Amino acid sequence: MHRVHIHEKPFQAWTLLEQKEQQFIQAGLLEQAANGAAATFVGTMRDFNEGNAVKAMQLEHYPGMTENQLEQIIDDACTQHNINQAYIAHRVGRIEPSENIVLVAVWSAHRKAAFDACRSIMEDLKHRAPFWKKEITAEGERWVTKNTQG
Amino acid sequence: MTIKILIFASLSEDIGVSTQSIPASAASTAKQAWEKITDKPLPSHCLVAINQQYAQASDTVAAGDEVAFFPPVTGG
Q1: Which residue of B has its CA nearest to A127?
Q2: CATH number of the CATH domain containing A87
Q3: Domain presence at residue A149
Q4: Residues of chain B neighbouring A101 (CB-CB closer than 8 A)
Q5: pLDDT digit string (tens) for B11-34?
Q6: Structural domain tally of chain B?
Q7: Is residue A29 part of a domain?
Q8: B75·A126 Cβ contact <8 A
Q9: Which end of chain B is more exposed for a tag (fewer CB within 10 A), N or C?
Q10: With contact defined as beta carbons under 8 Å apart, do B67 and B61 qualify?
C-alpha cells in the first residue's frame, strides 16, 4: 500500500483523503478506533510570488527518488512522533493558480503528535524531496530558487 | 558497463544535458562523472544523488550506478 502518490493531473484533496483513509482501514494499516486525531495540510498555488503575478507553474520531479524520499520522510515521522499512519500526495506538471500542489495527512491517537508530525513531514518535504518549481509570469519563465519562510 | 547521469531543472538548462551515459571506466567519483559531460564547473550549491540517495560529489561511483545532479529543491 503506497503512502505516497505523485499526481500528473489536478487532485481533489478531500475526496482523495477520504478514499485513502478507507484504503488504509480496509488494508488493516489504520485502526479507526485507535485514532483520536487527524491533521492535514493542503498547499495550493498562489497567483503571485515575489512581487509578480504568476500565471502558471511547471513542477518537475525526479521519478523514483522523489517517491523514495517521501516514503523515507514518512518513516522518519513515524519514528519521531507517535503516529498511526501518514499520507503524502504531490502534483507535478503544469499547475494553474488555486490548484492543489501538496496534501499531507497524519493520523494519531492525540492532537500534538498529529500536528507535530504533519508539520515535520511538510518541512522535510520542502528540504529533501526532489521537486523543482518554474513559474510562468507575464515577463517570462523563472525557476524558483528558494523556499519561502514557513 | 556504464554510469547513467541525470541532470534536473535549472542545472539541466544551464549545461544543455538532461541524461547521458558514460563508460564506467571514465569516472570513479560523482564529480568526475560531472566533468565528463560538461566543461562547466559543478556549482557549489548543487545537490548530488547516487542510486537515488543523497550523496557527496566526492563519493565513489561504479558500473551500473545512476548519478544525479540538481539544484536545491523547491517542492511543496
Answers
A1: B73
A2: 3.90.1170.40
A3: no
A4: 75-76
A5: 999 999 999 999 999 999 999 999
A6: 1
A7: no
A8: yes
A9: N
A10: yes
